[in-house]
Amino acid sequence: MPRPARSARSPQPATGRAAPGRVRIIGGRYRRTPIRVVDAPGLRPTPDRVRVTLFNWLEHLLGDWSEVRVLDLFAGSGALGFECASRGARHVTLIESHPRAAAALRQLLARLDGAPASIVEDDWRAALARLDAASCELVLLDPPFDADLLPAAIGAALRVLRPGGLLYVESARALDTAQRTAWPLELVREDRAGAVFFHLLRARAC
User: Fold this and answer.
1) Residue 20: pLDDT band by 50, 70, 90 thresholds?
2) How remote is the C-alpha of 6 from its chain's centroid?
3) By C-alpha distance, which of 111, 109, 115 is closest to 89?
4) pTM of the full structure
5) Contacts of 177 (CB under 8 A, 6+ apart)
6) Which of 11, 23, 114, 117 could form a disulfide with 42 if both were Cys (CB 3.0 to 4.6 A apart)?
7) Which is higher by pLDDT, 204 or 12?
8) pLDDT the model gives residue 15
9) Cβ–Cβ under 8 Å, residues 84 and 118
10) Any idea where the domains of the chain sit in the sequence?
């Protein structure tokens, strides 16, 4: 029996527009490679405008991607994770539980011959629990907007984020000060594009 699409990329904000059927990698080795967006409930790739802004931030902060290990926890279309691979990340782990979305990720990975990435088809909690502590320099976190997963996902993701590592959070509402101070994180950048709020945070060293 197919599993529900709980961890596909966040649902389309209430704008009346359907998710696009295809997006493209916007920079790096695989620039302009099309990414198919499967017709799965709740799957919405991160908008182009948001990705451009996010990766401008990351290029400025990271510079050299060669030692950056990335976790894309709710991978969906893979637009964020494969963008990191395209820009030279050491390795990208994409976790996705929806069978059709995960199959599309595997197909894309096969097309991107030599891409430093792996696909894990599993529940996000179970997959995350198997990862080594402090093993990632960057965690991408875009859970379904209507599933109320964000607090639990941030708390769980902190275990695999190294001190000083970066956490990207995409949500339907801005993170307020009380939320941010609940975790050992400091805000680096934040912005909004339409109904999408996005934040880049850094894990504080203990």
Assistant:
1) low
2) 14
3) 115
4) 0.87
5) none
6) 11
7) 204
8) 34
9) no
10) 22-203
DSSP of 133-144:
TT-EEEEEE---
- Residues in contact with 129: Cβ distance below 8 Å, sequence separation at least 6, in sequence order: none
* Identity of the residue numbered 6: R
The pLDDT score that the predictor gives to residue 206 is 60
Task: Kindly report each contact of residues 150-158 with a partner whose C-beta sits within 8 Å and lies 24 or more positions away, as own/partner.
Answer: 151/179, 151/182, 153/73, 153/74, 153/124, 154/183, 154/185, 155/183, 156/125, 156/128, 157/71, 157/73, 157/128, 158/183, 158/184, 158/185, 158/203
Task: Look up residue 25 and give its amino acid.
Answer: I
DSSP-based helix, strand, coil % in the chain, nearest 5: 30, 25, 45
Q: Which CATH number fits domain 22-203: 3.40.50.20, 3.90.1310.10, 3.40.50.150, 3.20.20.70?
A: 3.40.50.150
Are the C-beta atoms of residues 70 and 137 closer than 8 Å to each other?
yes
**Phi, psi at 197, each rounded to 5°:** -105, 140
Determine the Cα–Cα distance for residues 200 and 189; give it in Å rounded to an integer: 5
152 token code pair = 């639990």
pLDDT of residue 1: 40
In order, the DSSP letters of 62-77 are: H---TT-EEEETT-TT
pLDDT at 43: 74
Query: What are the C-alpha distances in Å from 195 to residues 93, 109, 150?
Result: 27, 30, 16
The answer for 122, left when phi > 0, alpha when psi is -120 to 50, beta otherwise, is: beta
